[in-house]
Amino acid sequence: MSVDKTRKGDEARRLRKLAGQWLKSKRTAAGLTQKELANRVGLEYYTFVSQIEGGQGRVPSNLYPVWARTLGLDLKDFAKKMLEFYDPHTHHALGFAPTGAETNHSLKNPSSIGINEN
Questions:
Q1: pLDDT at 103 over 80
Q2: Structural domain boundaries enclosing 33
Q3: What are the b/e assignments for 56-80, b being 16+ CB within 10 Å?
Q4: CATH number of the domain encompassing residue 55
Q5: Do the domain assignments include residue 35?
């Protein structure tokens, strides 16, 4: 495997982990357990939530509306954030590069939004 592919894979894993931590913070802010979230979004197994929060999976895009609603978030904002984590190149291409207030909580400084990369 080339170095470029390895770096891209490492970055994708890092971003999935950050996405999971962000989602966990939103779930806990909503006062939900993993099992409650899984039930409300129609998942058969709550361990899927655990895998997503651990960075080992992704929220399927067809479930964005129910996840956003369940977490009490605006759908467009939720989808934009998921795109930022899961496909940062498309996020940027659509003109969603962090600007203004977003710069303070960019993925380059995840601790500013309560995400610990360790």
A1: no
A2: 3-97
A3: ebbbeeeebeebbebbebeeeebbe
A4: 1.10.260.40
A5: yes
Given a cut of 60, whether residue 65 has pLDDT beyond it is yes
- The one-letter code for the residue type at 48 is F
Count of domains observed in the chain = 1
The C-alpha atoms of residue 43 and residue 87 are separated, in whole angstroms, by 23
Asked whether residue 85 is domain-assigned, the answer is: yes
Instruction: Identify the burial level of 82 via C-beta atoms within 10 angstroms of its C-beta, where 0-12 means exposed, 13-18 middle and 19 or more buried.
Output: buried
Residues 57 and 51 sit within 8 Å (Cβ to Cβ): yes
- Structure tokens, 101: 């207030």
Q: Rounded to two decimals, what is the model's pTM?
A: 0.79
Report d(CA 38, CA 44) in Å as an integer: 7
Between the CA of residue 8 and those of 11, 13, 25, 46, 118, what are the distances in Å? 5, 9, 26, 29, 19
